[in-house]
Amino acid sequence: MGSQKLHSPLLLLACVLCGCLAAQGCLEKERTALLQLRDSFYHPRPANLSEWPTWVGEDCCQWAGASCQDEAPRRVVFVSIAFARKPELGGMVVNGSLFAALEELQELRLSNNQISRWIEPKGMLGLKKLTSVNLEENLLTEESVSWLFNLPSLTAVYLSSNRLKSSSTLKAFCGLKDLSSLHLSFNTMEGTIDPCVSNMRSLQVLFLQGNRLTGEIPSLSKLSSLRTLNLGQNRLSGVFYFSSLANLANLTGVSLVDNDKLEVETEHPAWAPSFQLEGGLLLSGCSLNRRSGRRIPSFLSTQKNMFLLALSRTSIQGTIPAWMLDNVANTLVLDGNSLSGPFPQLEGNRTRGLSLLDLSKNKIHGPMPQNMKSMLPEL
Ligand SMILES: *[C@@H]1O[C@H](CO)[C@@H](O)[C@H](O)[C@H]1NC(C)=O
Ligand SMILES: *[C@@H]1O[C@H](CO)[C@@H](O)[C@H](O)[C@H]1NC(C)=O
Ligand SMILES: *[C@@H]1O[C@H](CO)[C@@H](O)[C@H](O)[C@H]1NC(C)=O
Ligand SMILES: *[C@@H]1O[C@H](CO)[C@@H](O)[C@H](O)[C@H]1NC(C)=O
Question: CATH number of 164-375: 3.40.50.720, 3.50.50.60, 3.80.10.10, 3.40.50.1820?
Fold first, then answer.
């Protein structure tokens, strides 16, 4: 009897609590802001319901493409509206004021929407907690992204595949001291890489691939957090000394591919790497070790587990050392060089995971090893 009496108030209390929590699901002003945002990206609204987020219900924290912090008040911290704009509709204009209510937003993804312009960008400046912005695959120019430079909380910016035309954009990002990840690949940025990049101490990832950058690569020796560097497919020149990266202990991947005026020097001055390039090294289409006998980079013998090594068209000479086949885990491309001598013996009884090996257009002679099939079973 007594227990039943106890149960009902408990049940009642539970219901009240549930009700409260549901009501606290999301703030009305944030819910309204999200719906306005959706409607501006999906305008005109697609007839087919499956092509846009229906976003029904009071609790916007439950909607696909939005999420909230766990503790009350459950403010919206993440918004993703990607692939909303149909290509045939052409460029779209984003109204920054629509974001003003989302004051606690931490991550915003608006990639693949053909955004060409921002109006009322002041609305974005209230987003003081914003750390990550993904605007890849849009039509943005320098003027349309200038609001980003006023958000010092940013740690990750994705702006690859837009219409940024000048390296001044890169320079402007130097002002964001906490930036750890900067993606500006596949734009048409012209000009040099400003030396201010040398002081971006928080940088872990720098992607500038596929632009029209010219001039020398500034010193990266103080970027102690750097993990991945991609400056490939530009028009960089001068001499890049690999020794300048010696102390970047967290470095795992470097690409400088297809900068045909860039000389990469790995032998001088003498140095020893503190890193392991487990992602890989891509120097294809650069001029490698012109001042040191076109040698195969000797530091690679210390890199024990490279996923990928690409040294095509670098003019290197000499015989392929046996360690090279041991150190590369997946892909080794050495075509279009002056490598000579026999193919190295595959010693020991250890099989290797190499799946792609390209040695074409060299001067290698003699028979291939008989045990190739058993030593390189994945090839
Ligand atoms: C709506 O879109 C989905 C996914 O694109 C598609 O599978 C479906 O056939 C479409 N329905 C109509 C009525 O066009
Ligand atoms: C941008 O959005 C705000 C808030 O909804 C609205 O008041 C303003 O008129 C919009 N601006 C333009 C140019 O549409
Ligand atoms: C290198 O990476 C480790 C592990 O992620 C991290 O703890 C350390 O702080 C990093 N070092 C630098 C200098 O960023
Ligand atoms: C490979 O060699 C090691 C020692 O040289 C030996 O212990 C191991 O059994 C060998 N493995 C195979 C598969 O023959």
Answer: 3.80.10.10
